[in-house]
């Protein structure tokens, strides 16, 4: 189909005027307005002997509707992301001063010198032992917990038994087994939240022990 070249100077002027009211590249209404102006101009300048058929016009209108829908979806998603970030910030602020569990194997030592740790068993164990480790990895003491069910457990240990340094540097590991062999386990450490922040668009928690962890690694409040 032959179409006479269109003079778009008036449309360009209109687009420039529209840009003063908002960002025309992201405003769905502005994009739709430009499309309608171009469509009217195209109809006015088409070859009377070979006019645009209905299918072609419908196709163009469907395309602009699709683009407009995508732009509106992007704006909605942006708004939801901002709301989610605000909710996370509020949640993080409310956790300041609370003790939480995160992945780790460091003993939490209180004012009375009692060390505490948490662990999760992947299956029921007939024998469960906690090995308290020095910073160099040597076994300082062993806590025998006997048989334990699948799930989360905790233990305490008297840190006065350790006289070679700062007990807060002690770590622990779990040795558990049943009739089928070793039982999988993971260790958790307790620490108080003293602050929050952001890293690469994600909320972080600053812990009393000096660690900064992503909010996603926080397990429970204790």
Automatic annotation (TrEMBL):
Which InterPro entries did the record assign? FlgD, FlgD/Vpr_Ig-like, FLgD_Tudor
The record's similarity note reads: Belongs to the FlgD family.
Tell me the keywords, alphabetical order. Answer: Bacterial flagellum biogenesis, Cell projection, Cilium, Flagellum
Q: What does this protein do?
A: Required for flagellar hook formation. May act as a scaffolding protein.
* Pfam families linked to this entry: FlgD, FlgD_ig, FLgD_tudor
Organism field: Paenacidovorax caeni
The FlgD Tudor-like domain sits at 87-216
Domain FlgD/Vpr Ig-like residues, every copy: 106-162
GO terms in the biological process aspect are: bacterial-type flagellum organization
| Claim: Ribosomal protein is one of the keywords in the record | no
Q: Does the keyword RNA-binding apply?
A: no
**Protein name (record):** Basal-body rod modification protein FlgD
Task: Give the residues annotated as coiled coil.
Answer: none
Source taxon at top rank? Bacteria
């Amino acid at each position: 189909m032959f179409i006479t070249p269109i003079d778009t100077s008036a449309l360009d002027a209109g687009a420039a005027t529209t840009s003063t009211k908002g960002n025309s590249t992201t405003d769905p209404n502005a994009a739709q307005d430009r499309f309608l102006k171009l469509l009217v101009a195209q109809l006015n300048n088409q070859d009377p002997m070979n006019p645009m058929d209905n299918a072609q016009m419908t196709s163009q209108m469907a395309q602009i509707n699709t683009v407009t829908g995508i732009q509106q979806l992007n704006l909605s998603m942006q708004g939801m992301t901002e709301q989610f970030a605000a909710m996370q910030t509020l949640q993080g602020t409310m956790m300041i001063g609370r003790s939480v569990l995160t992945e780790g194997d460091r003993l939490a030592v209180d004012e009375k010198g009692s060390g505490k740790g948490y662990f999760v068993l992947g299956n029921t164990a007939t024998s469960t032992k906690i090995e308290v480790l020095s910073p160099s990895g040597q076994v300082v003491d062993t806590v025998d917990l006997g048989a334990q069910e699948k799930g989360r457990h905790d233990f305490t240990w008297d840190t006065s038994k350790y006289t070679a340094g700062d007990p807060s540097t002690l770590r622990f590991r779990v040795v558990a087994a049943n009739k089928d062999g070793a039982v999988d386990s993971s260790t958790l450490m307790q620490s108080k939240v003293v602050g929050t922040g952001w890293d690469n668009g994600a909320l972080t928690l600053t812990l009393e022990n000096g660690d900064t962890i992503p909010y996603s690694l926080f397990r429970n409040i204790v």
